[in-house]
Amino acid sequence: MLFGCLYVPDFPVQAALRGSLRSFLSDAVAVLDGPESLLKVVACNEMARVAGVAIGMTKLQAESCGEVLCEKRVAEQEKSAQTALLEFGYRFSPRLESTAPGAVIIDLTGSSWVLGTAREIGEKMLHQATPAGFVVNVGIAANADAALHAARGIQGLAVIAPGEEAAALGRLPLEVLQPPQEILETLAQWGIRNFKSLAALPEIPLTERLGQQGLHLQRLAKGETQRELHPVEAPLLFCESMELEEPVDLLEPLGFILNRLLEQVMFRMRERSLATDHVRLDLTLQVHTDRQLGADSPAGTVTSEYQRTLKLAVPSQDAKVLLKLLQLDLSAHPPEAPIKKIMVEAFPARLRSVQAGLFQPLAPEPAKLEITLARLRDVVGAEDREGRSRIGFARTLDSHRPDSFEVLPAGFAAGPKDKNTCRLALRMFRPVLPARVEMLAGRPATIAFQSMRAKVERAAGPWRASGAWWDAGGEWQRDEWDLYLNFDGSIALYRVFQDLRTRQWFVEGMYD
């Protein structure tokens, strides 16, 4: 039997700093919790303790200790950090136990054939934890509890050989066992302050005074307990969030925060060989009622939710591409109030692997195409007046109505192409151009539109078309003509039509 434990010292602090520019080892950081009027320190790192910060201090007391960064505790950040720690543990074994916040026990039985000796496995855990965003202690022992206590009490790597648990754990303080406070005070009155002293007590008198709980603590101190792990599977949820101390109302500083959250999400996805084609951004806005809602509204602040969804044609693992697409989307649809909280969630998808042919010309990268399409939407708009997307691939609809089509997003097939069919290209005018037509013997003779006048050399038509007779508001009837027009010696072919309901003439397009 072989077990390893990943323990994150000062877990709330590391969860608050994960992905930021601050360092857990070199910056003094304290985590605050409680109501806004009475925030107190609930966790701090070693640098903050050296500066004089202690658990239970108020925010004002902690800030008076020098350059101490005070972060507010966020439950979502600790939850996502615990999930990331579990995903990191899956690199070494499929059987994991989420023992406590910041502590994961890994069943390493049989892994030496693949990963090496116990010490080699522990060194890999230490070295690979830093890129994953954690500073950890690693304990490896023949039973799970001994590995947990070694990781809690010994900095860095601790490898305990079978049968040497009591000697290796003897110097650890009793606080590592995390006993109830009344038992800890009783043992302190007896002069028992470490594992070795507790292990030396006689069992029967100890049980008579502290009960079975005291006997269990003694066995833990000796490293003699054996138990089964309670395996847990990390949820396939890729979500990161951050609550800001001060609301942000500019897109540029928001980009730095989005980049941090996206990097964390994409790192976790790459660890599972996944990508995403669907990203959701949830923003909590801080609305000042007297500003955003009007002068008649009572003064105060309320929160509102603002959500944007980004869908990709091709799954991606590139955080920079997703960041650029979100920035372009927010610049086109900016939130109406300062942002107080940000949450990014990516939905997993299988990564597509495409191998191009040896003699096949290179195509643009899908990620660059997505950015180009997003920039085009920012310039020309997302939809036209009829609610159709402006950017994508056009596909005709099953209708006789002229100019009846839909626009498919990038990545969707526009339908089969008939390479043997030769067709004229009609350059459509949107909106159509009003015209004035003079008829001669029932056929167009002259036409005027856009301050131009032309003589009709040849006319083909009319072709009568109608539809939607069942819809009073959408019924249409028209006569279409193809006209060769002579503009003072310049010949061009145009498509014109007459609306039979209003008797108005329009130029619909010009043939190339």
Task: From the 3D structure, determine the CATH topology of the largest domain.
Answer: MutS, DNA mismatch repair protein, domain I
- The strand line-up of the biggest sheet is 15-16-17-18-19-20
**What structural class is derived from the secondary structure elements?**
alpha+beta
Assess the beta-strand content as a share of residues: 25-35%
CATH architecture of the largest domain: 3-Layer(aba) Sandwich
Could you name the ranges where pLDDT drops below 50 across 5 or more consecutive residues?
A: none
Q: Quote the distance from N terminus to C terminus.
A: 79 Å
Regarding quaternary structure, what we see is: single chain
- The CATH class of the largest domain is Alpha Beta
Whole-number total of structural domains: 4
Largest sheet: 6 strands, antiparallel, barrel
Instruction: Please count the helical segments.
Output: 15
Shape, per Cα inertia axes? elongated
Number of strands: 20
Average pLDDT metric: 86
The rounded Rg comes to: 35 Å
Overview of the molecule:
The structure is a single chain. By secondary structure, the chain is α+β, with helices and mostly antiparallel strands. The chain contains 15 helices and 20 strands. The longest helix has 21 residues, at 251-271. It is elongated.
